[in-house]
Specification:
Bound molecules: acetoacetyl-coenzyme A
Strand order of the largest sheet: 5-4-6-7-1-8-13-12-11
Strand content: 25-35%
Shape: globular
Radius of gyration: 20 Å
Number of strands: 17
Structural class: alpha+beta
Length: 389
């Protein structure tokens, strides 16, 4: 039985900051961002947009051709959750009017937990192949203003339907994983911005890749030449280049320099203009690959590397399914990206500095473009969400 991704869609903020605007404000050469980091634009959520509204928007699209009655679980992966106790997925479940007999919970391990959700969903479907599981990965990547991570912010949600009818990609059973207790990127409960040791985080990412790859090779018996394309966790797109070169070197394939660029290039397009979306970023990369690759990927093996600081790494693989192109939401995704509003530097500061009140009072938020769902206000410490249409 094949189990994998039947449907995949994403959503991001309708507002973005071009990094040339940020470069001007920080008196930095724009090529440091455009070329050195490989990022061009970053999605910035307005007041009233959070991981719940972005997830509901992404999931609504992913569920378009799916029988709601078959959804038996909603696994919600995030690093920027809105509550220490209640799972964000419960709000999403209500907004989408999913079945009552549904397992809903939240997963956390920095940027890795979307993959934890995917693998758990695959196991759940192995037990009940007639059901489907909705996995949502959503995050707002937020660093200190004017800090080194600032240009690698972003926001987005990816929703995936996992089932025994994997119309896009079948996930193979073998996986290699690696865990180590390190402090490369973290966010204490009392902070709104992540803390990061940037250069160290890159080194740990590469170490986790090597360790996960070795484990994957041990359990699968496969080698580098068994793969056609690779998707990496993308905190910024140049990271994929660093990761792939590391893997190529590790596997003794340095002579294939030109070929190796094409092995990951198509996976970068969306992330380059959305920015980091933590848990969602690897799967945004997959959407980008499937929706940009000029050639037919049917039957090809894709390698995935998922990384969550702290740290947890996993290398796994999947096979692209026949007729996958008929099940993509390419046009919707391109429309979302093309219809965005560019922010001025001052708008960016205003959105960044908007703080949700914590006094327990009755607060309404200004209305911005947030798709079909909106965080209308907060009353008695309870977030109030609305479906607009
Ligand atoms: N033209 C072209 N390139 C330029 C340039 C210019 N004018 N100026 C600088 N560059 C190049 C540099 O040479 C450098 O290239 P290399 O990486 O090839 O050396 C690149 O631009 C970046 O320059 P710096 O190293 O000087 O940049 P920095 O120190 O200011 O910050 C960063 C880079 C550490 C990635 C920082 O953005 C950061 O801290 N980001 C957040 C942490 C992060 O994303 N870590 C990734 C691994 S952790 C993870 O994956 C989890 C997660 O999602 C956070």
């Amino acid at each position: 039985m094949n189990i994998g991704i039947e449907s995949l869609s994403f959503y991001t903020s309708r507002y973005y900051l071009d990094l040339k605007t940020l470069a001007r404000a920080r008196t930095v050469d724009v090529d440091k961002y455009y070329l050195g980091i490989g990022q061009e634009k970053m999605a910035i959520p307005p007041p009233g947009e959070d991981v719940i509204t972005m997830s509901a928007n992404a999931a609504c699209q992913a569920l378009k051709k799916i029988d709601y009655g078959k959804i038996a679980g909603l696994l919600f992966a995030t690093e920027s959750g809105i509550d220490q106790s209640k799972a964000g997925g419960i709000y999403v479940h209500r907004l989408l009017e999913l079945p009552k007999n549904c397992r809903v919970f939240e997963l956390k391990q920095a940027c890795y937990s979307g993959t934890a959700g995917l693998q758990l969903a695959v196991a759940m479907i192995a037990r009940h192949p007639e059901k489907k599981i909705l996995v949502v990965a959503a995050d707002v990547a937020r660093y200190a203003m004017a800090g080194s991570g600032e240009a690698t912010q972003g926001a987005g949600a990816v929703a995936m339907i996992i089932s025994a009818e994997p119309k896009l990609i079948a996930i193979e059973p073998e996986a290699g994983y690696y865990v180590e207790d390190v402090m490369d990127f973290w966010r204490p409960n009392y902070l709104q911005e992540a803390l990061v040791d940037g250069k160290y985080s890159i080194r740990v990412y590469l170490k986790a890749l090597a360790e996960s790859w070795h484990h994957y090779c041990q359990v699968s018996g496969r080698t580098f030449s068994d793969f056609y394309r690779f998707c990496y966790h993308l905190p910024f797109t140049r990271m994929a280049e660093k990761a792939h070169h590391h893997l190529v070197k590790l596997t003794g394939n340095e002579s294939l320099a030109e070929l190796t660029l094409t092995q990951f290039r198509d996976s970068l397009s969306y992330n380059r203009i959305i920015g980091n979306s933590y848990t969602a970023s690897l799967y945004l990369g997959l959407a980008s690959l499937l929706e940009h690759a000029a050639e037919d990927l049917t039957g090809k093996r894709i390698g995935f590397f998922s990384y969550g600081s702290g740290c947890m790494g996993e290398f796994f693989s999947g096979i692209v399914q026949q007729d996958y192109k008929n099940y993509l939401f390419t046009e919707t995704h391109r429309n979302i990206l093309n219809d965005r509003t560019e922010l001025t530097y001052q708008d960016y500061e205003n959105f960044y500095n908007f703080v949700y009140p914590t006094d327990g009072g009755d607060h309404k938020f200004p209305e911005y473009e947030t798709g079909m769902f909106r965080l209308v206000g907060i009353k008695e410490h309870k977030r109030i969400y609305e479906r607009k249409v």
